[in-house]
Amino acid sequence: MADKPIRQNWLVDPTKEIQIKWKQVEKQQKVSQLMKTRQDIEDIKKGQILGLEATCEMLELEIKRLDVELMNLRAIDVKSDTK
């Protein structure tokens, strides 16, 4: 990001051209900030959110496996009750 113009106590007033340049610098800072913020959003979408989605999928698979194990245990209990 571009640095802000250094505010100093000048002995003279800036010309119109200098004021325009300072305003262009200020505008470029905002453009750079906007681009960085958009990139941050994209990084979060592709990184952190994707990782959280993968974690959810793994937990769903583990829940399904536990359901199968519970059904097997219940089936064993039913068989041993009938003997």
Describe the structure in your own words.
The chain is mainly alpha-helical and 83 residues long. Helix content is 81%, strand content 0%. The chain contains one helix and no strands. The chain has one helix at residues 16-82. The termini are far apart. The model has no long low-confidence stretch (mean pLDDT 90).
SSE topology string: H
Share in β-strands: under 5%
Structural Rg? 31 Å
Which runs of at least 5 residues are low in confidence (pLDDT < 50)?
none
Major beta-sheet overview? none
> What share of the residues lie within helices?
over 70%
**Average pLDDT number:** 90
E-strand count: 0
Overall geometric form: rod-shaped
Report the total helices.
1
Cα end-to-end separation: 78 Å
Structural class: mainly alpha
Please specify the SSE layout and strand pairing.
Layout: H1 16-82
